[in-house]
Amino acid sequence: MDGTSLEATLAHLKTAVQSAGMFVSTRSELDESLTDRLAAMELMPRSYLVNDQALVALSESDAVWASFCTSDHLVLESAQAGLNLVDSYRALDETDNRIASALTASGLSWAFHPDAGFIMPDALRCGSGLCASISLHLPALVMSALAEQAFKRAMDAGFIIEGAYAARSSSLGSVFGLSLPQAWRESEAQALERLGRAALAMVEYERRCRDELMKTTPVDVLDAVGRALGLVSNARSLSRDEAVESLSMLRLGAAVGVLAGLELAELDELWLLAKTRMQVRDGERDAQARARLLRLAVQGATIESRYRDV
Question: Which of 48, 164, 208, 216 has its Cα between 20 and 30 A from that of 108?
């Protein structure tokens, strides 16, 4: 689009999204810490947020957000913790319907064909326009060298595995994405149900693997968790990668009952904190601030008493 067309499109979309109850702002109007958190939570790519004039829309009541005129005119996204695909999709669908009603009231509509579905710039994505992914923390599968086997089964079933593992190296923090392929021709409900079943199967495989590790080679888990706790408790400088890898092991330790003093929810928040830009003190570098904040956060953490002499 030329500049005039782009401005007109953005104006129509901004009005419709605001009518749907979302807060809309330009990137330049947002606080830097909020912008960095949006990127760290992967709500929006950093490449989008470097543009000061980029529009950012956030729902005031639901976990829904939007970006404008990237690969598509409007990208609506929603996310919730756990395998809660149904509620995420419901919030997204309701927001989409309100936006569509606002566009209709102004004489506009989404590009839709009765046979092809929603018309997208990429022909493979025509249809429902749905993209769905679930992030999974799978450290036990990685430690047991069973991740490749589990991922092959998922890919054979038609799913996409996202993460560095596909490039023959472990994903950072053992976190992987299980996603629907772009050319998915089922209804939204059927596709999400299939994705949910696949994710649950992967989760159960990870849990069985954790149980097996604790029965057969608990020293491997204890060593990984102990090293991670020692590093985070004492380091004076931590890169993002070091922090995320250490927190991944601490999260595994909390999940299998090896680590006390930190809940999974706390570790999830620390994981997010580790990936954001730090609030540094005078003369302090980002890596030093990260180490200081994590060191304070894990002060109460310890290895469970029954494992200390193992």
Answer: 48
